[in-house]
Amino acid sequence: MTDPVALTAALIRCPSVTPHEGGALRLLEQLLSEAGFECRRVDRGRVSNLFARWGAKGHPRSFGFNGHTDVVPVGEAKAWSRDPFGGEIAGGEIWGRGAADMKSGVAAFVAAAVDFVRETPPEGAVILTITGDEEGDAEDGTRALLDWMAAEGERMDVCVVGEPTCPEVMGQMMKIGRRGSLTARLTATGVQGHAAYPERARNPVHALAALVHRLAEARLDEGTDHFEPSTLAVVSFDVGNEASNVIPGAARALLNIRFNDRHTGASLTGWLRAEAAAVAAATGVGIEVAVKVSGEAFLTPPGPLSDLVARAVEAETGVRPALSTSGGTSDARFVREHCPVVEFGLVGPTMHKADERVKVDHIRQLAAIYRRMLALYFAG
Q1: Fewer CB within 10 Å, N or C, the chain?
Q2: How many CB atoms lie within 10 A of CB 176?
Q3: Which of these is catalytic: 29, 93, 101, 134?
Q4: Domain count of the chain?
């Protein structure tokens, strides 16, 4: 049997801070190749990615898994009580950067898949898409893998993403969708002047403050059947002026919108620009809106895939997972354009924190859940 805990430890010892591969994909490629998987490196730009398939290319029954081996930086080393790249086991937990997010999830599925195809070779294909770019810009990671798969005629029928999804209890939650994410940079340009003669200036601070207040007070929606209400958060307001007697010539603000499936990035961009234009017309201050959409809202409706995952989770944990769309973005936002996708993984309260760690028993339990998913899927 392949030990998912030992594999997690080995992966943690690979210093794969985005975008460095750190040896993690090489380790997985060797293990999967020895188990009969056909492996291809799909590197693009500075990013390393791995595609692995057991079974026939293009088979209509192909179970896919998506995960990442890149991790966020360690931060302050002195904040860690153990080596962040040590993979040490203590107190029934394995410690290190990526222990929760998500080297344990990758290790659990790899262990499950290797043992499954060796012991009960299925009629179909098992596919893994592992990226080194999920924690970075995400332009050359899962996107690159899916572009390559389209060009090569590779296809997943369904896919599970191994992000940590359970808030407190193993088996508690799966993700069937995610909110969209939009970041907007607002730049107000007025006319600089003396604070004693405001009539001779055109104050961009007043105009931008009015716009920010208007946006922050807006109620975007009341939520949908599977999503909470959309949110808008102003995260920065910057003038860069230390002189109390000068009205500055420009002011800037930054905001983030997490939106449900009532909206698209394009519709929200149009709304932001219309609101900015209204304030600009009222104040005479020019306002530019620069938008970046990190991902659109998406939903895999409850059905065969979520039912299969729920059955496997409940069989191994005794817990029926709730269907959720909470949290930030993940690479499921790219996979959903390829095939139905859900996310299920470990309890992850320490992800991205110092002393990141997960319970050893949970890793073994997750491997058993993934193996049961494979068994249920190929049993039809």
Answers
A1: C
A2: 25
A3: 134
A4: 2
